[in-house]
Amino acid sequence: MSESPIPRLEGCYEEAEEVDVVERRFVLRRHKRQKYRCDCGGCVETALGPPKLQPGGRYSVDFAVEVAVAKYQVPHAAGAAGENHAA
Questions:
Q1: pLDDT digits (tens, 9 = 90+) for 16-35
Q2: Which pTM does this prediction carry?
Q3: d(CA 62, CA 69)
Q4: pLDDT digits over 58-79, tens only?
Q5: Nearest-angstrom CA–CA distance, 61 and 64
Q6: Alpha-carbon distance 86 to 79, whole Å?
Q7: CA dihedral defined by 47, 50, 56, 62, rounded to 10 degrees?
Q8: In angstroms, rounded to a whole number, what is the distance separating the alpha carbons of residues 3 and 1?
Q9: By Cβ atoms counted within 10 A, which residue in 25, 51, 65, 77 is the most buried?
């Protein structure tokens, strides 16, 4: 091999993809639900809110899924803390 620099192939690239982790955030979303009343003024109805696992619950479906996955997630790294490989 010669010691001269290797020439660049202009416009030629090799692309690769990488899966990465983005820091997760928890946010408190406030929803305004419109209220309606009939002409007599005696009946008041409120629009439906976002879907929940439990009616009137505070947590979103996405939050519940995140908690469940975190609770039952199995560590995949070899030699993870707490593993005992001794027979």
A1: 888 776 778 888 999 899 99
A2: 0.50
A3: 11
A4: 889 888 888 888 888 877 665 5
A5: 5
A6: 12
A7: 180
A8: 7
A9: 65
